[in-house]
Amino acid sequence: MTHRAPVYRWMVAVAACVLLAACGKTLGGYPNHAPTPSLVAPSSGPHDDKAVYMDLIRQMQQQGAYYASLAHIDAYRQRFGTTPELRRRQADALRATGQLDAARTIYRSLLGGDQAAAAWHGLGLVEAQAGQAVAADEALLKATELEPVNAAYLSDLGFARLCDGQTSSAKDPLAMAAELDPTNAKVIANLALWAMLTGDTTRADAIMQRGQLPADSQNNVRQLAAQIASRQRQAAISTNRPAAASAPTAAAKQAAGTPTNVDVPASMLQRFTTDATAYEARP
User: Fold this and answer.
1) How confident is the model over 240-256, as pLDDT tens digits?
2) CA–CA gap between residue 103 and residue 119 (Å, rounded)
3) Is 243:165 a contact under the CB 8 Å cutoff?
């Protein structure tokens, strides 16, 4: 069995080169600004090869090397057989590479086991990519019910609702996610996006600055907010809905006498604004 060790060291070295060039992708397109983890195989005996290989696949997907991970998933299956996690990671890679029908099939086969929450989450992302807003919301909501403290699931649920024009119902999951994981750049970006789509750009800027989002990520949030608002306006026009379906600007809300700073829990204001007292909800 000891002859496997050189093979695995070579495999890890190749994968590391692939991952250095890969870009991670998340719902909403927000990059992960955490330092790239080093893919160095831990010192282990031959009896740990299975665990080492699975960890390699996990790290490949964390860095966005989904095509490479698909190849290694097949190799893992040939060598060690399959597991529920391996199947779910295959579905994640298929979804990330645009193979939505194949991903959907695998996710649905996992809804009754120990990968159920992750499978519901993945299925929700598949439906969101396919433009099935109702099905996406139902699946993402189910994922949060199974894992209620998973900030990533809550944030993706809120983001999907923002994209579907459900600004009001997006608030709670986004606020929960931000309190559960206040240092997560994607979570902070989604919360700032919500504030921007409500017309409160001052709060959005404060959230992003407090969360220390890089300038390019802040610009991405602003651009995405403009795109979503434009899409909602076009949808309102095409369906003859009132223009109020799109998010009003802060200036318009102030001119109408509507408070622009409401409905955010005080704890969130303390965490994500530089001067919480300036944003207290008015009675």
Assistant:
1) 755 444 444 333 333 33
2) 10
3) no
C-beta separation of 213 from 194 below 8 A: no
Q: Over the stretch 169-199, which tens digit does the pLDDT of each residue have? A: 999 999 999 999 999 999 999 999 999 999 9
Domains of the chain, first to last: 1-13+25-33+46-147 (1.25.40.10), 149-283 (no CATH)
The model carries a pTM of 0.71
Structure tokens at 181: 């994981």
- The DSSP H or E segment spanning 118 is helix 116-129
Distance CA 100, CA 116 (A): 18
Residue in the structure block whose two tokens are 């598949």: 126
Scan for tokens 């994607």, then name that residue.
Answer: 186
Query: Which residues are within 8 A (CB) of 39 and not within 5 positions of it... i.e. 6 or more apart?
Result: 12, 15, 16, 19, 56, 59, 60
Distance, in Å, from the CA atom of 201 to the CA atom of 220, rounded to the nearest integer, reads 14
Cβ atoms of residues 170 and 162 within 8 Å: yes
Please give the Cα distance from 109 to 141 (Å, whole number): 18
CA–CA gap between residue 103 and residue 94 (Å, rounded):
5
- Scanning the structure block, which residue is given the tokens 């099905």? 135
Q: How many of the other CB atoms lie within 10 Å of CB of 98?
A: 10
* Amino acid code (one letter) for 55: D
